[in-house]
Write a structure and sequence with these properties.
It contains 1 helix and no strands. The chain is mainly alpha-helical. 93% of the residues lie in helices and 0% in strands. The protein has one helix at 4-55.
Length: 56
């Protein structure tokens, strides 16, 4: 049986572990694709502006 200090340590460990797990899932599913998509979008926009500037 766990006494209070062991139980509180286990609860704290599980909280930190699960918070890290969900943060990792959030980063991989939302932040990284947004970052990559924004980078591609900006490069395409710069290419388009470069073509327009060269054409004028």
């Amino acid at each position: 049986m766990l006494d209070f200090s062991q139980f509180s340590g286990l609860v704290l460990f599980m909280f930190i572990f699960t918070a890290g797990f969900w943060l990792l899932i959030f980063l991989l599913t939302f932040v990284v694709p947004y970052w990559i998509g924004g980078t591609i979008w900006e490069k395409l926009k710069l290419k388009k502006e470069g073509k327009e500037a060269a054409g004028k």
